[in-house]
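FIELD: query
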Amino acid sequence: MKNSTIILIIIAVFSAGLLSYILFFPNVFIYQLMGPDSMHNFMTKTRDYGIQMAKLRGDYRCCIEPPCTMCYSEGNKWNYGQAGTCGCDDFIAKGEEPCPQCAQALNCESQEASKCEVDMDSLND
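FIELD: result
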């Protein structure tokens, strides 16, 4: 075989491998191109879109606007153990407390807004 034929075969095999990698693992490829800030923005937008879709289906009945993210992220008592749903309105209707994120946001509505910042890290403790 000629050297040019071997080089073309190597390029073809490499290209097929790269294409296969991109097709079978698209998220890994995309995330490698994104920096941490871009990835965070992408994940936040994806989560917010998921919440909006769940609201349209009637599975996300949150008591605050914008809706809490705690119930979407993990199963807990306020979504009956089903992540991606929210039942905080149900809990308020029964006279019970909503999730901590909603409770803090509702408490903030009665306070001066400049003194009230929701610290998401403190809610997960």
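FIELD: remark
The mean pLDDT is 84.
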